[in-house]
Amino acid sequence: MLFSKLPQTEISIFTLMTDLANSYNAINLAQGFPGFDCYPYLQDLVTEYMQKGFNQYAPSHGVGLLRQRIEEKSRLLYGVQFDVDTEITVTSGATEALYVAITSVVKVDDEVIILEPAYDCYVPAIQLNGGLPVFVQLDSENFSVPWEKVKDAFSEKTKAIIINNPHNPGGYVWKKSDFETLSQLTGDREIYIISDEVYDHILFDERKHLSPCMVDSLKSKTFVCGSLGKTFHVTGWKIGYCLAPVKLTKEFRKIHQYVTFSTATPFQFALADFMIDPTRYFHLGEFYESKRNLFLNGLKETLFEFTPTEGSFFQTVSYKHLSKEADYELAKKMTVRARVAAIPISYFYHDKKDEKVLRFCFAKEDDVLEEAIYRLIEFCKELH
């Protein structure tokens, strides 16, 4: 009999809801991918590099010019310098970066703190390495960090904490005080920070992105995992990266070379050329803020309750005042009847905790969002 290393793992909720949306020709606001294409010029660059013959293996740690562009971006964003040759690694998506970072530091019986609701790739990576996830629930109203509960979760076996900023699904953006408290809690202990920052340029209402790499006491033990796919609307290209000090990068690269070895060559060169102009990523927040505001203005006409998201391209809504139905069942009903798909938040909790909350992705064309709102208004009337 085959022994399963992930016996509790099921088909991803993102796959389930996308399949359901496709079956009913629904507007898919469930899975987190942009509903529009990237700049045509970026596509042209890929074609150009393919035609020039840049189609063989790239260096395992990434094309040098792309690592240089990532360093420039990081320096502009964080005010922190990473060495192009020894501290930056290009990966096949942020998911690979997260997996390799976890694998680099977690061994059997090590504990890793997970702040829930959490993205679904964290826990399996911990378990595959023999680690033990320790769960702390974020504030149910605004998804901020309950630091007293985090403090209680630390033990002698704690090896790492995974943070996600801006947060998916809740949209919370970490504050300076959050990093100060994290620094105090970890102190001089060998506790690593694995920082999922794939929405680092998607913040709203003049908020600024902060990272543990900006804190002297945390930088030496932090892996920053990012996504160029999310930033440039090319999630299907699976181009991510990891920023980490030399000592951590050395271990990271040992594992990375046996996971994917290298990432698609023409995509790397195209992105390196495209990123020469920083305005192509530093105005991303403004672009998505207009979409968020359009979606929020529409949500006000529904009966859902919500707090405006601070970052990411997700908005959560509560329906607990409208129905006692389980979130998965209501999400299915909404997909079938209203033909709008969303993600039930219970699937972001290890115990499927049901807070009667749904997550919508508003990274779509404006007319799609407007049509989705119209359908949601009618659906809420049915619930009410």
Automatic annotation (TrEMBL):
<dbReference type="GO" id="GO:0016212">
    <property type="term" value="F:kynurenine-oxoglutarate transaminase activity"/>
</dbReference>
<comment type="similarity">
    <text>Belongs to the class-I pyridoxal-phosphate-dependent aminotransferase family.</text>
</comment>
<feature type="domain" description="Aminotransferase class I/classII large">
    <location>
        <begin position="27"/>
        <end position="375"/>
    </location>
</feature>
<dbReference type="GO" id="GO:0005737">
    <property type="term" value="C:cytoplasm"/>
</dbReference>
<dbReference type="InterPro" id="IPR015422">
    <property type="entry name" value="PyrdxlP-dep_Trfase_small"/>
</dbReference>
<dbReference type="InterPro" id="IPR051326">
    <property type="entry name" value="Kynurenine-oxoglutarate_AT"/>
</dbReference>
<dbReference type="InterPro" id="IPR015424">
    <property type="entry name" value="PyrdxlP-dep_Trfase"/>
</dbReference>
<keyword id="KW-0663">Pyridoxal phosphate</keyword>
<dbReference type="Pfam" id="PF00155">
    <property type="entry name" value="Aminotran_1_2"/>
</dbReference>
<dbReference type="GO" id="GO:0030170">
    <property type="term" value="F:pyridoxal phosphate binding"/>
</dbReference>
<dbReference type="InterPro" id="IPR004839">
    <property type="entry name" value="Aminotransferase_I/II_large"/>
</dbReference>
<keyword id="KW-0808">Transferase</keyword>
<protein>
    <submittedName>
        <fullName>Aminotransferase</fullName>
    </submittedName>
</protein>
<dbReference type="InterPro" id="IPR015421">
    <property type="entry name" value="PyrdxlP-dep_Trfase_major"/>
</dbReference>
<keyword id="KW-0032">Aminotransferase</keyword>
